[in-house]
Structure formats: structure tokens, C-alpha cells
Records
---
Amino acid sequence: MKAVRLLTLSAIAATAMALITQAETAEASGLNGTGSARFYWDDARGDREHYSSDFSYRNSQINNSTFCTNYRRGSIEYRGCRKAAREWLKRQCDSDRHRDDWHRMYCFAASSFRP
């Protein structure tokens, strides 16, 4: 009886460790994928420029360098797009319509974004 009880406790402990490992793996991987956004920028003359861009995210972190890659780096359009993307991320962070994991992802990206 004692041997059966020890085996059972051992099996329970092994199952618990496997479940903990699965949970940690799922948490560490987070959100992964790509997204697209449409945003605008009001320039100094008061003209509104519209931009669209794809972006990628991995482990619940947006890769800010993936914004505006459809514009030539250093061009006026690229700089305007990057400014607009920064403001878009701030608006997404301020919005309460996102799930917590997405909200954290947008807020972290907004705080670390450099046009």
C-alpha cells in the first residue's frame, strides 16, 4: 500500500510539473504575428497625410522598426509615417477597447517608439 501511495504522489508531482512547464511556455511565447494599421499625421502647414503600414510583434512586443518599411528610409514620407505611427500607438495605448495583453503591448511600443 505504501509503494502504491508513493507512486501516486510521484505521478501527481510529475503531472503538476508538466502543467507548470506548459503554462510557463505559453506565457513566455505571448502574442506573435503581424498587424496592419492606417493612421494620419497633421503636418506644420495643417495638411493631413494618411499612411498605412504593416508591423510585426513577437512575444507580446511590437517590433517598432517594422513600421513604415513600405516607404523609402529617410524620405519625407517615411519620416511622416513614423511620426504618425508613434501617435497611433499612443492612441491605442490610451484606448480602453483592447484586451489587457494587447493594451500592454501597445503601451510598451508607444513608450519605446523613436521616429
Note: The chain is about 50% helix and 20% strand.
---
Amino acid sequence: MFDVKNFRKDLKLTQQQLAEILGCGQANISAMEKDSKALTPEQDKILLSMFGEETIRQYTTNNKDNDCNGTSEEFWMSLTQSQQKTILELVERIKVLQEENIILVKSLSKEKIG
């Protein structure tokens, strides 16, 4: 996830200035800073071309545990943080259900054997 707020503040840009750079409205920047809206792939490209990969990488968090098992990073980054959070919560719930299912199957197997 890209930390829009700290990026903007470190570069001493106003929300309006960053909005002009990214070709969107100031309200979009505000939403991005509140983590309710993600950068679009086109906005990612704009930032990379203007500020370079090294600078952008400083403001990008990439949790390997939450990489959606190979799902396109571009698609993942196009989701809002709320959508990403929902997906990650569902993945965790599926893992718990799988573990519960394994325990249940083992328990039933023991009952049949015994």
C-alpha cells in the first residue's frame, strides 16, 4: 500500500498540488490519505516517472503474507484499502474453517476406527 499522506507531507505538497500531479481532485487525495481509496495504476505510473522507483519504494509497504498468493499486484493495488481488508479477513476466516474441518475429519476418523 502506498502511504500518500507521508509522501505528500515529506515533499511539502498540498493535497491540491498532488491532485494536480495525479490528475484527480483534492477529495480523492483526502480519501487516499484516509485509506478509503487506492492509487490507480495510471497514478502509480505518474509517481514512478516523476519521483523514481527508489523514492516511491520508501512509501510503499508490501506485506509478503498478504500478497494474495500471486494475484496481480496491479489489481491488488487498484482495490481500496477497505476492499483489501475485507479480502484478507475472508482469507483468514477460510484458513480457520479449513483447520476446523481438518480437526472434525480427524475426530470422525478416530470414531470410525475406535
Note: The chain is about 70% helix and 0% strand.
---
Amino acid sequence: MHDIQKLEVGSNVTSIGVSALSGQSYLVHVDLPDSVSSIGASAFIDAGVPNVNIPNSVTSIGDYAFACTTSNDYLKKVVFDGDAPATGLSIFSNVDPLSAEVYVHISASGFDVD
């Protein structure tokens, strides 16, 4: 697979497959449309994307979807546009909790927010 820097997912795509963009360390922008309902296991593992918007349509995120096999200093911001999706194990494993921010809409449900 070639090094991808920007990805605009088509509006007819409903799922990001298992390991679909794993290892794409040059990936700096992903646009997920409202048609996407699931993000597969390890879909973005070791990818370089700094910001991710999870559309309201996403109902499931697989194990290690946004994880990194080493310390991840790429991922900085995650925005959930809707209610909490069902998630697998360690979807943000090795993401630095001191430098990454997660945003949830105030009306969203299913998140355990302190």
C-alpha cells in the first residue's frame, strides 16, 4: 500500500474494514461520512492521523481501532458526534492521555464522563 496523506471516504461506504489503514503513518486527514456505521479492529492502528471525527452514524468500533504499537504522539483530538458506540478492547491503546483530547456532545448518551 502506498503512503496515504489524505483520505475522503465515499458517501456509499458503510464500514472501515479490519486493518484498512494500519501503518499509514503519513495519514494526516480522514473524512468519515455519515454513511459509516462501523470501524473495524485495528483499522487505524499505527496511522498518523492527528484528528478524528466519529460521525453519529458509527455504532461500533473494533478492538485497537486507533491504537499504536508504541507510544502514539500522533492522535491529538477525537470528536464523537453522537452517542457512544459499542467499542472493542483498548481502542486508544498507547495514545498519550496527556496530549490527546476527547470531545463528546453534551446531549450524547452512553459515555462515562467524570
Note: The longest strand covers residues 51-54.
---
Amino acid sequence: MVLCNHHGRNAGHFALGIGKAAGAPLTLIPEEFAERVVSFKEVADILEGSVIKKTFDEKDHGVAVLLKAFQGRLDMNELESLGRSKAMRPEE
């Protein structure tokens, strides 16, 4: 799966147009989540669901478009804890 990061800030309609033109099965825009903080897990679950659907369609490729505005809406505490948990894991 190719993940495209669109730099349109809050122009969700522009990202939807890009997704449609690219034939992307998934375009995520912050407007879909109202005015709340979005968890990284929630976004990852949505991406994972899209990958699973593509797998059932017997396709080994896909495109997901995410608007750059997500960067300011993600739960930073959650992201920091993910970084700490990774750093705390022993090397394999």
C-alpha cells in the first residue's frame, strides 16, 4: 500500500479529489472526525481495515490519502508512549 500525505492543510475537498483521481480506496480527512483529537490507533485500524479489504479482493496494491492536517489532530501523548515502548523493547 502506498500512503500519500497531501499538504492541503484543511482543504478536505481537495484531498478527496486527489483520492478519487488516484483511484484510492481510502481517503482520510480530519473533517470525518469532527473537532476531536484522533488516536493513532484509530487511524491505524482504519488503514488496516482497508488493507484487509484489498486482500479479500485479491489485490496486492492500494493507495491511501491522508491530509497533512492530521498531524495537528493526533494524540501526541499516545505517539510519545509508542516511541517510549519501542525504545524500551530489548533488541532481538
Note: The chain has a mean pLDDT of 77.
